[in-house]
Automatic annotation (TrEMBL):
Natural source organism: Aegilops tauschii subsp. strangulata
Major localization listed first in the record, in broad terms: membrane
The keyword Repeat belongs to this UniProt entry's keyword annotation: no
Classification via PANTHER family: RUST RESISTANCE KINASE LR10-RELATED
Enzyme class: transferase
Catalytic activity field: L-seryl-[protein] + ATP = O-phospho-L-seryl-[protein] + ADP + H(+); L-threonyl-[protein] + ATP = O-phospho-L-threonyl-[protein] + ADP + H(+)
Entry GO CC: membrane
PROSITE patterns, alphabetized: PROTEIN_KINASE_DOM (PS50011)
Phylogenetic placement of the source organism: Eukaryota, Viridiplantae, Streptophyta, Embryophyta, Tracheophyta
Designated name of the protein: non-specific serine/threonine protein kinase
UniProt-annotated location(s): Membrane
């Protein structure tokens, strides 16, 4: 009897194991099939977009050319939500930044958004897209190189030597005005209005002279200049900079003013030297920066900011 029970248990366990193995195999095949179909759809969508834009877009490079430029991707200078960034050189020696897009959900949309927006415009305060690569599922975006990295590095740094770069007379004001000019051009100076939807210190790059350039148009939307309200199926903007109307329509319709809200939050961070939301602060009331400023203002209290003023600025 015991032998029969053991044999039955063994057979049952074996059957379950075989069933689980078959289930995993079917799931794997189904996943690979869906992934292949999704990749094919994205590739077709990108190629149709590139044919539509014809020769009005930046230079198109092959993947082997990008690989040669990037010296086999050895000098990594950054990591973003949609891929890694490498420092490279064009054949003529001009330094560039190459963003290798990862094969993730939305990556095809990011590529199209970037080429469709900054690929067709030029402004002193908007980073230039010099070229791109789209070969199968391998896609890259080639930008002008910004040696001083992002504004985020400077306004939130604990290193006083790094922060000193922004303490020269009017430098922060110049940076804020430069960002505003770039944003105004996107909203008013193009044939189609470009809404950025991700205005934050990390996406403001600084050139050799610390001139600001708006970057990262992966979430951008195009609309006609007479279109006051924009329809969005989903908003993936960064929390802390998101305008209220982007997460609740009860605050009104989404428009270019959503970028203005994000810009205002960015400026507050620039002059305060702290992030708009800082969990490390002991007082719960001081965690959210705008709320902290509001409380100070209505109570007629002095705003003590991290940013120090040089003697030359005081004079």
């Amino acid at each position: 009897l015991i032998l029969g029970i053991c044999r039955y248990t063994y057979q049952t366990t074996s059957s379950v194991a075989v069933f689980v193995a078959l289930l995993l195999a079917v799931a794997t095949v189904l996943y690979l099939s869906l992934k292949t179909r999704y990749n094919a759809e994205i590739h077709l969508k990108v190629e149709m977009f590139l044919k539509t834009y014809g020769t009005s877009k930046p230079t198109r490079y092959t993947f082997s050319e990008v690989k040669k430029m990037a010296r086999r991707f050895k000098e990594k200078v950054g990591q973003g939500g949609f891929g890694s960034v490498y420092k490279d050189e064009l054949p003529n020696g001009v330094p560039v930044a190459v963003k290798m897009l990862e094969n993730s959900t939305g990556e095809g949309e990011v590529f199209i958004n970037e080429v469709a927006t900054i690929g067709l415009i030029y402004h002193a305060n908007i980073v230039r897209l010099l070229g791109f690569c789209s070969e199968g599922m391998r896609r890259a975006l080639i930008y002008e190189f910004m040696p001083n990295e992002s504004l985020e590095k400077y306004i939130f740094s604990d290193d006083s030597n790094i922060f000193q770069h922004l303490l020269v007379p009017n430098k922060l004001l110049d940076i804020a005005l430069g960002i505003a000019r770039g944003m105004e051009y996107l909203h008013q100076g193009c044939n189609q209005r470009i809404l950025h939807f991700d205005m934050m210190p990390h996406n403001i790059l600084l050139d050799y002279n610390f001139n600001p350039k708006i970057s990262d148009f992966g979430l951008a939307k195009l609309c006609t200049r007479d279109q006051s309200i924009v329809t969005l199926t989903a908003a993936r903007v960064t929390m802390g900079y998101i305008a209220p109307e982007l997460y609740s329509r009860s605050f009104g319709g989404v428009s270019y003013k959503s970028d203005v809200y994000s810009f205002g939050m960015l400026v507050i961070e620039m002059v305060s030297g702290r992030r708009n939301s800082d969990p490390s602060i002991e007082s719960q009331n001081d965690v959210y920066l705008p709320e902290w400023i509001y409380e100070k203002v209505i109570n007629d209290q002095e705003l003590v900011l991290t940013l120090e003023t040089t003697q030359e600025e005081k004079d």
